[in-house]
Design brief:
This protein has 3 helices and no strands. By secondary structure, the chain is mainly alpha-helical. The protein has one domain. The longest helix is centred in the middle third of the chain and has 26 residues.
Length: about 60
């Protein structure tokens, strides 16, 4: 955060923190979700968590016969 403060020439770290803490949290969350999707085990686990146990390995809900 100190580097961002210096780059943006904010006089106070409080100003930088108030403006960018929420942005950094969202960037970290997005990065974690994208990383989870490229790891096969995590992706299957995420699919089951989002779609339930009927999800097939492609992440799509299982089709009824």
């Amino acid at each position: 955060m100190k580097i961002v403060q210096t780059m943006l020439r904010h006089a106070s770290i409080t100003t930088t923190s108030n403006l960018y803490t929420n942005v950094l949290t969202q960037v970290a969350r997005d990065a974690a979700e994208k990383t989870a999707l490229i790891i096969p085990r995590a992706s299957a686990r995420l699919s089951r968590a989002l779609l339930g146990p009927a999800a097939d390995h492609s992440g799509h809900p299982a089709r009824s016969p």
